[in-house]
Amino acid sequence: MTPIITAFEHSPDRGKGLARDMRVRWALEEVGQPYDVRLLSFQAMKEPDHLARNPFGQIPTYEEGELVLFESGAIVFHLAERHAGLLPRPAHARARAIAWLFAALNTVEPPIMELSLARILERDAPWYEQRLPVVVARVQKRLDELCASLGDADWLDGAFSVADLMMVSVLLRLKPSGMLESYPSLAAYVARGEARPAYQRAFAAQWAVFQAGANAG
Across the beta sheet with 4-8, what order do the strands follow? Predict the structure, then answer.
């Protein structure tokens, strides 16, 4: 049975690969699993049909027969467990990969999202100029720590795994800000992720959605 994922009909990132369906697309491409996509408008995301899949009215969701999942991390983890190629076989390496998956979502992504939202939603607020350096410092602290842990390695823990897929996906949100330029090893790490054929296929698929929408408009 071909799984179905949901994605934005008109993504607010304008096809840059930052929407969270991109993580799921990438994972599906890495494991060689064909999939279908159900595109949703912002209005459709708030309607009962979609809320039955994701109670928070967000994307992506994942349907595989009777199984319905939401949250990109949960979906990617499910794919990594079900298919070979994204989780190491040795028990300890597997556990470390899962730990890094959670670290990407719970430790590294929150300050990055805080920075992104501050720049988008709070730019005109009277406290913005005072708040921004504090938020930037939080991101820099996480990048310093991540950089020290990665060192000169290509990937977080040996071979490429679900940990790197998620961490690269999170770090990609910083590219528009230029912050990664101050961390050459992390910039190279992200570039290695983007160079993977599976990432390229996933990006092309979501870019095609944006292009179709732009042409239709």
Answer: 36-40, 4-8, 61-64, 67-70
Strand 61-64, strand 67-70: pairing: antiparallel
Residue spans of beta strands (DSSP E) within the chain: 4-8, 36-40, 61-64, 67-70
CATH code of the domain occupying 4-85+198-216: 3.40.30.10
Distance CA 50, CA 62 (A): 11
The answer to pTM > 0.85 is yes
Q: What confidence tens digit (pLDDT) does each residue in 55-84 have?
A: 999 999 999 999 999 999 999 999 999 999
Are 26 and 169 spatial neighbours (Cβ–Cβ below 8 Å)?
yes
Architecture of domain 91-196: Up-down Bundle (1.20)
